[in-house]
Design goal:
The complex is a heterodimer of chains A (179) and B (353).
Chain A lengths: L1 H9 L2 H15 L23 E3 L14 H5 L5 E8 L2 E13 L8 H5 L5 E3 L14 E2 L1 H11 L7 H4 L19
Antiparallel strand pairs in A: 1-4, 2-3, 3-5
Chain B lengths: L1 H39 L15 H11 L10 H17 L12 E3 L2 E3 L10 H22 L3 H32 L4 H6 L19 H14 L24 H26 L17 H26 L5 H29 L3
Antiparallel strand pairs in B: 1-2
Classes of the chains: A alpha+beta (179), B mainly alpha (353).
The complex binds iron/sulfur cluster (SF4) (2 copies).
The site of one iron/sulfur cluster (SF4) has 14 residues of chain A, from α3.
Chain lengths: 179, 353
C-alpha cells in the first residue's frame, strides 16, 4: 500500500489524472457559454428587474400618491410628492415621483407595499450608464418604463368590481371644499 | 570586403526571418492559449474580433500600442525603461543558436552559410542559460524601479524563484551534455539522428534522460513564470507582481517576453531531449534535397506539442504556495537532478557508445 502510494507520487499520478480530465474536455468541446449580447438567457417569470409605474387601460396613472412605497423602501430610493387631483377633491395622485436607482437593491418591497399595484418590476436589467445622474428617474421616465414593459393594462378598479367600495374614486358632483 | 557584406546581408536576413517567425508565433500563441484554455474549461474564449476571434492578437496589439504610457511618480526612469528591454531581449536572443533544420552548409558566392541555424557556436547551451539569467535582472530591476513596495516584493520573489529553478534547468541538461559530448545545439541534434529510440529522452543505452526531461520541463515552467509556478505574476491574487506599474508597450514587452521564453524553452526541450528536427521514425524523413521540409515540419510539430503541454498544464493545475515552490525546487528537483547526473555519468562510463 505504501509502495503503491510512493510509485503514484513518483509518476505524478494525480496530476496525470487531472490532465486526462482536461484533455477529455478539450477533445469533447461542448461550451456552456452564452454569448451574452448576442444570445440572452431567458429570465424567470418573477425576475425583479427595473421598476416602472403602471397605468390603467384608460391611460390614467394607477398611483394614488399614498407614500406607502416610500415608507416600505429600505434604502430610501423613492420620493413621492402627493397632491390632490385638480378639480376632484376626493382623489389624490403623485404630482412628482422620483427614484434614485443607484441605491435600489431590487428587493421588490415597494411593489408589495403598493395598495393599488401601481408599481411593477420589468425584466429589464441592461441599465448601465456612463453618468450616474442618468439613474435619477422622474415620473415620466418611470411611466415610460412601465408602458413598454407592461403593455397589458388593467381596467380601473371600480370597473373591475362594480359593487365594492374603493378609495380614490372621483365623485364629480361633490361640491368644492370651502376654507 | 565583398565577402563580409554578403555574409552580413545573409545573416541579417536570417535574423529577420527568425525574429519574424518568433514574433508571429508569439501573436498566435496569445490567441491559442486563450482558446485552448477555454476549450479545456468548457468556455469559448475570444469570439468577437474577426471570425471565431482570430484577429484578437491584432486588436490586443493595437490596444496596447495606443495605451497611455505611465511612469509612476518617483520611479527611476532609466531603470524603469530598461527593465522590459532586459526581459525581452534575452528571450529573443536565445533563438540565435537553435537549429531549425538539417545542419547544411551552402555556398553563396563564396561565403559559407548555414541556412537553418543563425550561428552554430560551440557553447550554445551555455549561451542560452547565460541570457536566461540576464532576464532575471530585468525582472528584479522592473520591480525595484517602479517605486512601489508591491512591485519590489514581487520582483524579489520572482528573482528568488528564477535563480532557484535556473539551477535545476542547468543540472537537468548536464545528462544530455554527457551523452552528446558537446555544448553545441547542432551537435546535440546530430547525435540523436535516426528514430525516436535515439532521442536522449528515450535512448536506452546508456541511460534514458526521461527523468531529466521531466525535471527540465518542470523547472522551465517555473523559469517562464507559467502556472502552476506563476507566483511572480499570480494575476488572480497579486495584481501582477513585478510589473504591476507597467502599462502600454512596456507591459506588452513583458508579455511578449513570457511567450518568447515559452517558445525558447520548447525549442530547447525539442533539441535537447527530442531529437530536434529529426523525424520519430526514419522513413518519415524525406531523403536528400527535401530533408529540410520534413525537418522543419517535425521541429515545428514538436515545439507546438510542448507549447500545448504548457497550456494543458496551466488548465489543469492550481498555483503552488511560495514555500511549496521553494521546497519542491530545492528538496525534490535538485537531488533528483544530481542523482540523474551521477547515474548517467557512471553508466556512460561503463557503456560508452
Ligand atoms: S425594489 Fe426595494 S430598494 Fe428598490 S425601490 Fe423598491 S423597495 Fe426600494
Ligand atoms: S406607487 Fe403605490 S405605494 Fe407608491 S405612492 Fe403610488 S400608490 Fe402609493
Amino acid at each position: 500500500m505504501k509502495l503503491k502510494k510512493w510509485i503514484q507520487s513518483l509518476i505524478f499520478y494525480e496530476i496525470l489524472l487531472g490532465m486526462k480530465e482536461t484533455l477529455k474536455h478539450f477533445l469533447k468541446y461542448r461550451p456552456i457559454t452564452l454569448e451574452y449580447p448576442h444570445v440572452k438567457k431567458p429570465l424567470p417569470e418573477n425576475y425583479r428587474g427595473m421598476l416602472g409605474l403602471l397605468r390603467y387601460d384608460d391611460d390614467t396613472e394607477k398611483c394614488v400618491g399614498c407614500d406607502l412605497c416610500e415608507a416600505a423602501c429600505p434604502s430610501r430610493v423613492i420620493r413621492v410628492v402627493s397632491a390632490e387631483v385638480p378639480g376632484e377633491p376626493t382623489k389624490r395622485f403623485a404630482k412628482e415621483y422620483y427614484m434614485d436607482m443607484t441605491r435600489c437593491l431590487f428587493c421588490g418591497l415597494c411593489v408589495k407595499a403598493c395598495p393599488v399595484d401601481a408599481l411593477g418590476m420589468s425584466q429589464e436589467f441592461e441599465w448601465a450608464v456612463y453618468d450616474k445622474r442618468n439613474l435619477q428617474l422622474n415620473k415620466e421616465q418611470l411611466l415610460a418604463i412601465g408602458d413598454r414593459a407592461f403593455p397589458e393594462r388593467e381596467k380601473r378598479l371600480e370597473f373591475q368590481h362594480p359593487n365594492v367600495a374603493y378609495f380614490n374614486v372621483s365623485f364629480k358632483d361633490i361640491p368644492e371644499k370651502e376654507f | 570586403m565583398f565577402d563580409t557584406s554578403i555574409k552580413l546581408a545573409l545573416t541579417l536576413s536570417q535574423i529577420g526571418a527568425v525574429m519574424g517567425v518568433v514574433l508571429l508565433t508569439v501573436a498566435v500563441l496569445t490567441l491559442l492559449e486563450r482558446k485552448v484554455l477555454s476549450w479545456m474549461q468548457d468556455r469559448m474564449g475570444p469570439m468577437e474580433v474577426g471570425p471565431y476571434g482570430v484577429l484578437q492578437p491584432v486588436a490586443d496589439g493595437l490596444k496596447l500600442f495606443f495605451k497611455e504610457d505611465i511612469i509612476p511618480a518617483g520611479a527611476n526612469k532609466i531603470m524603469f525603461s530598461l527593465a522590459p528591454i532586459l526581459v525581452l531581449v534575452p528571450a529573443l536572443i536565445g533563438f540565435a543558436v537553435i537549429p531549425f533544420g538539417p545542419n547544411w552548409t551552402i555556398d553563396v558566392m563564396g561565403v559559407e552559410f548555414k541556412p537553418f541555424v543563425i550561428s552554430d557556436i560551440n557553447i550554445g547551451v551555455l549561451y542560452i542559460l547565460a541570457f536566461a539569467s540576464i532576464g532575471a535582472y530585468g525582472v528584479i530591476l522592473g520591480g525595484w524601479a517602479s517605486n512601489s513596495k508591491y512591485s519590489l516584493l514581487g520582483g524579489l520573489r520572482s528573482a528568488a524563484q528564477l535563480i532557484s529553478y535556473e539551477l535545476n534547468v542547468g543540472l537537468a541538461i548536464v545528462g544530455v551534455l554527457l551523452l552528446a559530448g558537446s555544448l553545441s545545439l547542432v551537435e546535440i541534434t546530430e547525435a540523436q539522428a535516426g528514430g525516436f529510440w535515439n532521442w536522449f529522452a528515450f535512448d536506452p543505452v546508456p541511460f534514458p534522460q526521461f527523468i531529466a526531461f521531466v525535471i527540465f520541463l518542470i523547472a522551465s515552467v517555473a523559469e517562464t513564470n507559467r502556472l502552476p509556478f506563476d507566483l511572480p505574476e499570480a494575476e488572480s491574487e497579486l495584481v501582477a507582481g513585478f510589473f504591476t506599474e507597467y502599462s502600454g508597450m512596456r507591459f506588452a514587452f513583458f508579455f511578449m517576453a513570457e511567450y518568447a521564453n515559452m517558445i525558447l524553452v520548447s525549442c530547447m526541450s525539442t533539441v535537447l531531449f527530442f531529437g530536434g528536427w529529426h523525424a520519430p521514425l526514419p522513413f518519415l524523413q524525406a531523403p536528400g534535397m527535401f530533408a529540410w521540409v520534413t525537418g522543419i515540419f517535425w521541429f515545428t510539430a514538436k515545439v507546438y506539442f510542448f507549447l500545448f503541454l504548457f497550456f494543458w498544464i496551466r488548465a489543469t493545475l492550481p498555483r503552488l504556495r511560495y514555500d511549496q515552490l521553494m521546497r519542491f525546487g530545492w528538496k525534490v528537483l535538485l537531488p533528483i537532478a544530481l542523482g540523474n547526473i551521477v547515474v548517467t555519468s557512471v553508466l556512460a562510463y561503463i557503456f560508452p557508445n
